[in-house]
Every structure is written in C-alpha cells, then in structure tokens.
Amino acid sequence: MAISPTSWISPLFWLTIVLILVSSIPCYSADPDLLQDFCVGDVKAAITINGFPCKPASEVTPDDFFFDGLSKEGNTSNRYGMSLTPGNVLSFPGLNTLGISMNRVDFAPGGLNPPHSHPRATESGVVIKGRLLVGFTTTSNVFHSKVLTAGQMFVVPKGLVHFQKNVGKGKALIYTAFNSHLPGAAILATTLFGATPAIPNDVLTQAFQVEEEVVNEMKAKFST
Ligand code: GLV
Ligand code: MN
C-alpha cells in the first residue's frame, strides 16, 4: 500500500502535541517561590515597585519579624460599631513579598463590617468571641451566609463582596487572614458614594435606578 506524504499526521501525532501543550501549562495552585528568605519592606522608599524594595539585610533586626498591633481591642465608637486593625505590609513591613497578612476586627453589639471586597486576596477568618452573621455573594448573585461562634472559621473567595455583623448580645472579635501582603479593600458604600472626585450623579441614579435626592443623601453620608 502506498504511504501518503501526510500519513504522519496520525492520532498519535496529535495526542503527542496535546500532551506537550498540557505539560507546559504552568501550575498556579501555589504562591510563586521567593528568591530570598525575606525582604523586609522599606515602606518609605522613594521608589515603589510591585511590593516594596528590601531594607538592607544589615539593617534587619528581630523586631522586623514581630508585630503586636493586633493585640489591642479597637475603638468601636463609630457609625458601624466596628474597628478593623490591619496587620499588612504597611503596618508590619516584615510581611513584604511573603504573600500573607492578617486583620483584627472588633465589633460592638450590633456592629457591622460593611460589605466590601479584597481585589488581591482570598480571606479566611476565625471567630474568637461572640456570635456573627458572616456572608458573601458570588458573581452569580448567590448569597452564602452562616451564624458563627467562637472557634468557627469562614472563607471568602478572592474579590467577592462580603460582610460580618455582630448578632450576639455582647462584643465580638474575629481575626482574618489573607494570601496577600496587601489585600486592598473596596468598601462598596464609600467607593461609590465617597469617591474623590465624585462619581457623577447621573451615573449613580441610572445604576441604582433611584432619584437624584437619594444619591445626594448617600453622598452626604459617605463623602470624605
Ligand atoms: C474582614 O472582612 C476583613 O477584611 O478583615
Ligand atoms: Mn474582608
């Protein structure tokens, strides 16, 4: 039987191509490896990069790797009855480039950590004290929530809008952890109604399908 010049394009050939392509797809299931043990951030450096430049190793001290900023109860005397103390690269430069950070969140009775999202990190948290309604919405607008008590954990996938509300009788406390040294936070009410310069009223009235007076009232509450 004559062999055609294209007979090499066999199923085996295509299978080999597919295997080569699949094996060359990088695996993104873990943080990228660091190129050094640490890089204590010089958060006052004149130049900023994607992260902060490292403090010279000769100037690094043990204190760069310890932080007691989350030990004290925050002041919850504010309109939300909540206080969030960040332990991120800005307050704890030893976290620079390590891909992790934590917050402490204190709640007065009825206090609310208002709906917000973290553009750069997944959040997980553990309730230390009290009783909290913890919830987030998906991009398909499905709302997942549960009331949690001490010792119970939650997770909020990266970028999804979430909140916690103290539904117990006393104070509540949670610690949260992030897979970014600076997760960022977009708090919906302030990002939309307290932006500088302000988002035009016609954008907000059209987006929320309300009259201008409602938008003005919201802006008056959240402008900074
Ligand atoms: C809680 O949602 C937090 O961002 O710490
Ligand atoms: Mn959060």
Automatic annotation (TrEMBL):
First and last residue of the signal peptide: 1-30
GO CC list: apoplast
Binding positions for Mn(2+) per the UniProt entry: 116, 118, 123, 162
Subcellular location: Secreted, Extracellular space, Apoplast
Binding annotation for oxalate: 103, 113, 118, 123
Residue intervals of the Cupin type-1 domain: 68-216
Keywords, comma-separated and alphabetical: Apoplast, Disulfide bond, Glycoprotein, Manganese, Metal-binding, Secreted, Signal
Disulfide bonds, paired cysteine numbers: 39-54
GO molecular-function term, one example from the UniProt record: manganese ion binding
Chief location category: secreted
Domain of life: Eukaryota
Functional description taken from the UniProt entry: May play a role in plant defense. Probably has no oxalate oxidase activity even if the active site is conserved.
Family indicated by similarity: Belongs to the germin family.
Designated name of the protein: Germin-like protein
